[in-house]
Amino acid sequence: MQDSSSLYAWVWGSGIVVCLAVWLYGLNIQNRWRLRSLPGPRWKWLVGQLKEAGTGRLHEHLLQWAQQYGPIFKFHFGRVPVVVVTNPELAYQVCVKRFMNFHDRPPPIMQLYSGRHRSLQMSSMLFARGKLWAGLRAAGEPLFHTKPLHRYAPLMNSAAEGLVHVLEKSSTPEQAPKAVNINQTLSNMTMEVLGTAALGVHLDAQSTEGEHGQGADLVWSGRQLFTVSNVKPILKLLLMAIPLLSGFWRQVIAWFKDPGMLDAAVARGYLWGASQALLDNARRKRPGFAGIKPTSTANGVAAAAADGGPGLAEPVHAAATANAVIAELANARKHPSGIGANAQIWGLMQGAFAKGEANYQGMVPQDTSILYHLMNATNKETGERLTDQQICSTCTLFILAGYETTSTALAYALYEISRNLDVEARILQEVDAFGRNKAPDYEDLARFPYLWAAFHESMRLWTVATPIIAMTRMCTQACTLAGHYIPKGTRVMVNTWGMQRDPKLYPDPEEFRPERFLEGSKEAQSRHPYAYMPFGAGPHKCIGYKFAEEEAMLTLVRLYQHFTFTVAPETGDLRASLLAAVTVYPKHGIFLRPHARV
User: Fold this and answer.
1) Are 388 and 306 in contact (CB under 8 A)?
2) Annotated binding-site ranges for heme
3) CA 392 from chain center: how many Å?
4) Sequential DSSP letters for 353-395
5) Count of domains for the chain
6) Cα–chain-centroid distance for residue 584?
7) CA 500 – CA 517 distance, rounded (Å)
8) What gap in Å lies between CA 391 and CA 378, rounded to an integer?
9) What average pLDDT does the segment 123-129 reach?
10) Which pLDDT tens digit goes with each residue over 570-594?
11) Is residue 386 included in any domain, yes or no?
């Protein structure tokens, strides 16, 4: 009887201790105490502000919090505290003046991957740190100097001409123009540009609106990575609220075959395989190349364990169309191999890698491509050539960073210009003065000051890149910011969406007014230089921003040489439909009707 009572007491005591430990864990006392001087939304037990952040509307909550708490405040992404600045001077401090205090980008808050998968993620310029980041950045910068930008213009004009042909099918004289999901149509075009510029092969992504052309498989893969937030909300909440059990939650995600995570694994593997195949083909073109040797095909993908990334798979002679490839990739995650989460996800990546390698094994990249340049580049910090993993990760980053952001920015610009006929009229005047029957080159873009202003105003009003990744820095050295102590390891986010809609910086911020950005205008002269940061600022500023601007401007000129646009009812309330993931994008798309100019 005494033993039974002792056991009963022990069980009750253990239960109380466990409950107390869980309760204390959920209070997150240590992280909250370190930033206690900062204002911000009230802490919610265990989850912080995950409810607000997990709905896809974080950009709007950041705007509201900035209005409520001022230019610097904090919120909690689960257990992770984030300091937010919504002030151009503080943004300048974080991104430029005190760069050494905020040198690196932090890893993603939602740790979906571990081991080899995480190694791939952290070897790209986006998440690399310290000397590795500095070396990758220095190796990539020559790609976006003035001379290469001149060289890209014919590629961009060719893709824009293809876009015109696609839109002409929806704008026939015999019938009323059809509504076009301009986001999707533009993403096919920007993928075509990136395929040629980054990978050095022509991707016919616009053939039948990208459904059958070479490159549609890459478009599909890119979209999966941009919609990785499809991971079930409850699983995202658990992963971020209780990171202590992140390994277990990843197992759960794999067990339940969560489509968001598994599709992303397939897409990442496929993009990696295509890049690796093109890299090896470039080396075969130069048999005397003395750099890093390609991974032996004899070991196949199993060689991945040696350096943290997939090796070359045995060639698979699959001549399937892009549609068939997409169908295979989309179905692959329904039957993941392996038992544990890592085994399942790695198995998916292996299979997708093999398909990507096989489908691009016959293509040799041009020697003007980004991939070819990186193959010959040296990490100036170490004096060594870039590894296969670094080259392929960087090429994949260029594709992802270049195609979705530029196409979304273009869609927003067309939307706003279409809603403001006075703006459209001035743009048409510039285009007609240049000529409607000739393609502009890089130097010609200076002849479109009002179109430039309209594009910048659109980028201000509809900030494409969310601050979650692009505008977040890790405090690498403890410091004070606006009088508040910022401990080492704290995430600091620049709230560009809130800053670029601040009425103190932009009078009547909800109005689309290109005159704000005309050189010499009173508003442009009085504005703080860091009040407008669509591409970031400082050493971490988007390395390809000039490329993106050139592509967008050339495309807009070519479009307005042939069309005007009206907003179709299918677009609905654009702002209410926006979701924030990697980009701030319209959930249902932007639908425009193209009207052929006579």
Assistant:
1) no
2) 542
3) 16
4) HHHHHHHTTT----TTSHHHHHHH-EETTTTEEPPHHHHHHHH
5) 2
6) 10
7) 13
8) 11
9) 87
10) 999 999 999 998 889 999 999 999 9
11) no
